[in-house]
Amino acid sequence: MTDKALVVDIKDGIITVMPMIKGGCAGCTAECDKKSSTFPVENSLGLDVKVGSTVRLKAAKKAMMVQGLISILLPVACAVAGYFLATPICSLFGRTAGEDSKALGVLIPFMISSILVFVFTRKFKMPGTPDIAEIL
Which of 109, 107, 7, 115 shows the shortest CA–CA distance to 57? Predict the structure, then answer.
């Protein structure tokens, strides 16, 4: 998550910020490739935020929890399932499951699920809205 952001708009209680790539981005008016899109944030602490303020953001707890469950537990669960399914799969092909088969049974599901997690997190937005932790 981006630590620093620049407040670019405040309308009807909705605060919109733009992530800062570098410290000099706050006063920059040039259009460059490093400019990123804006997104809404929450101000649960009720800080006195104005347009042009530089703020530090913290990730939403719900988003961190979902990301942790998806990115860690899913590949590990697939790897464990692959280990135990290696023996029945090998028996379908008339082979005995050895250490090499079990290793492949762990690695292949782990890699496939890791790729799926990567694609999933790029396609779907994580729940929760970042929160303003402090004004810098």
Answer: 7
